[in-house]
Specification:
By secondary structure, this protein is of the alpha+beta class. Helix content is 80%, strand content 6%. Residues 294-551 form the Methyl-accepting transducer domain.
């Protein structure tokens, strides 16, 4: 029974929360704030630990530096700590003075030397205290550990009646190397717990402030949201009850204000719709009676339309037959026209070929005519050269005649010289020999001149023959040039005629192509007309059937109009339940 009561209590609490959106919003926002504060607190705790670790590390560095200085100093002086036997000992005064200097220089709290040499744990030197020597002082665990392990040892941060400290202990050895005491340093570490305390309370105040301010903001925000929603809920309840007269006005520009404005616009539209529906239902009730009468008249008209459609269907069927026959004739004409087009296309190709050949022949004749002109010019040059050759031959003949005369005179001179040499006797024998040689040369020159004369005569005869042949060839070339020129003119006439014929064939081919395309378009149009007419015929049949169906449908519409009239009356009665201004 107790468990059941507890469950019932929990359900009632959750049901109360779920029924209030403001409580849900506040609880959600406060929960989020608490979560943020928890995360912030954990983060602060981690930061505090890290800061403490860093501070302890800094303390360790300071302690290590100072204890190192003390150890170095004690090792460097000739005096030994175990030799101190009182406050007036020179070693005591010297060592305490140096320890005091290190204390002040490094800003330390205490610097001291402890000993258990005689089995008694006591102070040997303690800065800041006059009668320190021989005072009992119990060793801590860290001090004992430093002596036993013979190593430098750091204490944790600890608190006593004098404050919060952190210490370091350095074991000291006597002349025999045996541990007899320690050198220690205390440093003020109160900043660590003070920092922890400051961070803790600062975090606590921040968290508390955030929770308080967050709760206040959550309450204000939830109230600013839920209050207009409550007004909107009340307005919605009135609309649900049929009251459309109350306006909802919220002077807000946020989403809730937009929702309220949209709801009020919907209310006004619904109010206008109810007015229109009320007016329309009245009009519809009146109109339905007229529609019922019109439906009867439409039934009678549909019967007449069905009869007319049957007559039109018979006429369209005859048109379809005529169009089909015309389409067949046009298709045959189109086929014949295609054949003529193919033949004209062949003629066009032949005309192109003849035109090409005539153009080639004209070009060839033109080239031949140009070549004949060149030959004529060359024949003229040859004739001129032959005339010059004949003239040169005559000049050479005259020169040969002169040479022959000179040879005859030379022969006479040689003969006279021989005669004169014979008269001289022995003195003229040499001259006679020369004269004989000259005579031989003269005779040889005369013979050569005669031979050349004969050759020149033959050459002159050949030149005359060549000149005569060139003259005849020149006349033949002129005659051939005349004929070729006439042939060129004839080819030009042929080419012009073929070109004109080709142009006419092209025009004819273009005209046939256009006619062919026109017939194709006509054929397609006739086929389309035939198809459309057939479709119209089928359509008329369908329309006839549709008119029959329409007649039956009109009967159904008449019954439906009767039902609509009753529904309009019911709608008018339902609209009256709404309250509009």
């Amino acid at each position: 029974m107790g468990q059941q009561a507890s469950l019932t209590s929990k359900k009632s609490v959750f049901g109360w929360l779920n029924s209030r959106i403001s409580l849900k919003m506040m609880s959600s926002m406060i929960g989020l704030i608490i979560l943020i504060c928890a995360v912030f607190s954990v983060t602060e705790y981690q930061i505090s630990n890290r800061l403490t670790s860093k501070l302890e590390g800094q303390f360790d560095l300071r302690l290590a530096s100072s204890i190192q200085s003390i150890g170095t100093y004690l090792d460097s002086i000739p005096e030994h700590v175990e030799d101190i036997d009182g406050l007036t000992s020179e070693s005591y005064i010297k060592i305490k003075t140096e320890l005091q200097r290190i204390l002040e220089t490094d800003a330390l709290e205490n610097v001291y030397i402890l000993s258990n040499n005689t089995g008694k744990e006591q102070i040997v030197v303690l800065t800041g205290v006059d009668d320190d020597y021989g005072t009992d002082y119990a060793f801590t665990d860290e001090m004992k550990s430093a002596m036993e392990n013979q190593t430098r040892t750091y204490s944790t941060i600890y608190k006593d009646e004098y404050g919060t400290h952190k210490s370091v202990f350095l074991p000291l050895k006597d002349r025999n190397g045996q541990a007899f005491g320690i050198a220690g340093i205390d440093i003020d570490a109160s900043i660590v717990p003070e920092t922890r305390t400051f961070i803790f309370w600062t975090t606590a105040f921040i968290v508390l402030g955030v929770v308080v301010v967050g709760a206040a903001l959550a309450y204000m925000i939830s109230r600013s949201i839920t209050r207009p929603i409550a007004l909107l809920v009340r307005a919605t309840e009135k609309v649900a009850d049929g009251d459309l007269t109350e306006e909802l006005v919220l002077k807000r520009t946020d989403e809730i204000g937009q929702l309220a404005n949209t709801f009020d616009l919907m209310r006004r539209n619904l109010e206008a719709l109810i007015r229109k529906v009320s007016a329309s239902s009245k009009i519809f009730t009146t109109t339905s009676g007229k529609l019922y009468q019109s439906a009867d008249e439409m039934g009678a008209s549909s019967q007449q339309v069905a009869s007319s459609m049957n007559s039109m269907n018979e006429g369209v069927s005859e048109v379809v037959v005529s169009i089909t026959e015309s389409t067949s004739s046009i298709v045959e004409v189109n086929v014949d026209l295609a054949k003529v087009t193919d033949e004209v296309k062949s003629m066009q190709e032949m005309a192109y070929e003849v035109s090409s050949h005539s153009q080639d022949g004209q070009d060839l004749v033109e080239k031949t005519l140009n070549q004949m002109n060149v030959i004529q010019q060359e024949m003229q040059h040859s004739q001129d050269a032959a005339v010059q050759l004949d003239l040169r031959s005559k000049e050479i003949g005259e020169i040969i005649t002169l040479i022959t005369n000179i040879a005859g005179q030379t022969n006479l001179l040689a003969l006279n010289a021989s005669i004169e040499a014979a008269h001289v006797g022995e003195y003229g024998k040499g001259f006679a020999v020369v004269a004989g040689e000259v005579k031989k040369l003269a005779e040889q020159s005369s013979d050569a001149a005669n031979s050349i004369t004969e050759l020149i005569s033959s050459t002159q005869q050949d030149s005359q023959s060549v000149l005569s042949s060139i003259a005849q060839g020149y006349q033949a070339v002129e005659q051939g040039q005349t004929w070729i020129h006439e042939m060129y003119e004839n080819f030009k006439v042929i080419f012009n005629g073929v070109s004109s014929f080709s142009a006419q064939i092209d025009h004819l081919k273009n005209a046939l192509d256009k006619a062919d395309k026109s017939f194709e378009m006509i054929t397609e149009s006739m086929q389309k007309i035939s198809g459309i007419t057939e479709e119209q015929s089928a359509g008329y049949e369908e329309v006839g059937a549709a008119v029959q169906e329409q007649s039956a449908t009109i009967q159904e519409i008449t019954g439906a109009i009767r039902n609509l009239s009753q529904m309009a009356a019911d709608l008018q009665q339902s609209v009256q339940s709404f309250k509009v201004s």
